[in-house]
Amino acid sequence: MTQAQRYKYPLHLPQSLKETAARMAQEDGVSLNQWIVAAVAQKIGAMQTADDFLKARAGNARRGSLTGLLDKAPDVPPAPEDAV
């Protein structure tokens, strides 16, 4: 989507959430619409960053790989300091 392209989306917010968002937008000196757009963009960025990070950390790991490691662990009770 280019900067010129805009899409309308009917957003239904609970009244308390709308009031809080409106107050925060006013405190930031922007319109409620601008504030919501920024909040959605921030959430998308956070989700994409987390997804990229987790995929990088997983590397070549495959589902079930952990089971092999756990099978090699000794079957002993936890140390007293580790018990909850």
TrEMBL record:
Which domain of life does this protein belong to? Bacteria
One Pfam family, please name it: HicB
InterPro entries reported in the protein's UniProt record: Arc_rbn_hlx_hlx, Ribbon_hlx_hlx, Uncharacterised_HicB
**Bilayer-crossing regions:** none
Q: Where is this region: Disordered?
A: 65-84
One Gene Ontology term from the biological process aspect of the record: regulation of DNA-templated transcription
Which Gene3D superfamilies does the UniProt record give?
Met repressor-like (1.10.1220.10)
Q: Compositional bias (Pro residues) at which positions?
A: 75-84
- What is the protein's given name? Toxin-antitoxin system HicB family antitoxin
